[in-house]
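Form 7-S
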Amino acid sequence: MNIKGITVTLINKKEIGKDPFGNPIYDDVEIEVDNVLVSPVSTEDIVHTLELTGKKAVYTLAIPKGDENDWEDAEVIFFGERWRTFGFVTQGIEHLIPGDWNKKVMVERYE
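Output:
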């Protein structure tokens, strides 16, 4: 059996130019990322992250190997809802981890 993730939309800031004073101007860019695993967090993880960060983790995203996008404090869209990542993206060494994913990040509900 082959495990396959879903496509999520990652929203990142991209520099689109400079203002008259030379400061960067950013715009939201939607990036479709295929094969992202989405799994509900355990009750223990919900309590733990709530106590440590004040944020309520709902899902953990497993990010495919080779992905170079910035997932920290980013907005993502999947299951028809908006979510925000929080905490650090944890990453393992690609060739030492079986499967297609080597990064993880938690998300909270975002409205």
